[in-house]
Amino acid sequence: MSRVQKYTYFPGCMIPFRLPHFELTIRKVLERLDVDMIADEGHTCCPEPTTFTGVDFEAWLTVGARNVAVSESTGRDTLALCSGCFHTLAIARHMIHSEQDIRERVNSRLKKIGMEATGNVTVKNILHVLHEDIGLERIKKQVVHSLKGISLATHYGCHLVRPIEATHMDDAENPRWMENLIQAVGAEAVDYEDKMACCGAPIAPSDEAKSFRLTAEKLRKIRAAGADAIVMICPTCYTQMEMQQKKTAEYLDSEFSIPVLYLGEMLALAMGMVDLVTSNSRRYHRVKIQSLLEKMGVGK
Amino acid sequence: MTIGGISSDLEFRNWILQQPEGQTLLRCYQCGRCTSACPVAEIDSSFNPRLFLEKIILADEALAEERLIWTCLTCEQCEVRCPEHVKIPQILILAKVRGLATGNTPQTALDRARSILRQGRTIQVSDPMIKTREKMELPDLGSPPVEQLTKMLTDLKLAKRLESTESRYGGGESE
Fold this sequence. Notes:
By secondary structure, chain A is α/β, with parallel strands linked by helices. Helix content of chain A is 49%, strand content 10%. In chain B, helix 7 (107-119) crosses helix 9 (146-155).
C-alpha cells in the first residue's frame, strides 16, 4: 500500500457549512488516492476577498497572514478547497514572502498574539493537488465508470486562477488542468466562448441586476456550446450559477436548466461512488441531475 | 487645489501610493486596454476602469464616493491584459477602503466584516449545519479562536470604525 499524503485542510465557511457535499465527495475521492486532509482549529475565516478587502485591506491582509502563520506551524502544505479562501491565503502568503516591509508590518501585529508568518508554506487549491501532486495517471487508475459520451464545460472562477504570481496556476487566460481531469475520466471537455468570464457573484451585494446579467450571459454561452453539464470548484460560483440559476431568467429571455457538478462529484461518479452523489443531490442541486446521471449510465 | 477642472486632494493619491501595490498606478499611461477587457464595462458604459485610474492619477478623491467602484468584480481580466501590469482591481479596492468613512460600502460587506469580527466566520453557523456534518460523518471543525482575531482587529481600530459606519445603500440582501 502506498504512503498516505497529508495536507492541512483549510475549511473556510461556505464549503463545510453551506455546501458540505463538496467536502464529503472530495474527501472520499482523495481517500481513494491515498490523500488525507487534516483541519487545524487555529484557522479562522480567511477572510473572504470580494468585500472585506474593500472594508479594510490591512485587516484582511493581517487576518490572512495569521492564517498563513497557522498553516506554517502545521509543517504540511495547506489545501484550501474554497477558491475565495485559496485566493486570500495565496496572496497573503505571496505578499509576506516577497515584500519585506509588509512582512515586518504584519508581523509586528502578529507578535502581540505570539505568532509570526514567514511565507514559507505552500498554499494549494484542489487542482494543484489532483493534477500536479497526484497526477492524471494515478487518477485514471481509479476510474471504474468512464464518463464517455458526456460533454462538460469547465468553470474555473476568477479567484482560483488570478493573480498568477500568487496562485501558481498553469495559465491566467486559458488554464487547462480541469479539462485534463475531465478527459481523464473519459468525458469530453467542451470549449465555449469567454471560458474565463466571471460568474457575476462578487457584485451581487452592490448591484444584483448587473451581477445576474453576467451570470445569464455566461450560462447562455455554455448552453450554446452544447454542454451536458458544468463542472466547477468555487462555492461562491456554485451558489450563483447553480443555486440561483433560475433567477437568471429575469435577465435573459429564456430559462436555463444546465446541471452543475462540483469537481469532486464528477470524480466520485467516475470512481463508482454514485450513492455519495445521489444521496445529497436533492438538497444541494436545484437543477436536477437525474437525466445527466441517466446519460452517464448511473441513474436509477 | 484644482487640476483639470476637478477638485483634487494630493493626500488621497499619496495614500494610495503608500499602500500595498499602490505604486503600480504610476505605470499607467491611460491606453484603455483595461476597459476593453472589462466584462462590467461591456454591459455598463459608465463603468470605465481607465477613467477610474485617471481620476486617481489626478488625485480626485470623489472616486471613493462613487458607488460604481463597488461593481468591480475583482475578476482581474483588466490586470491580465494591462501591458504595464498595473494592479487595477487592487487600486480600486484601496479606493473602496477610503469610501468607508462616508459609508460608500454595501450593507452586505459591513455585515460580513462584523460577522468576522464577532465569530471568526463570514457566515453564522447553525445547529442544523452541524447536524448535517455529523450525518455525513464529516469531522468536527471546532470553533475559531475569536479572541485573537478580535484583539488584532481592535488594534487596527476596525471594530471602532465598523461601529460608527452606516451603509449609504442597502444593496443586496443580508446573509
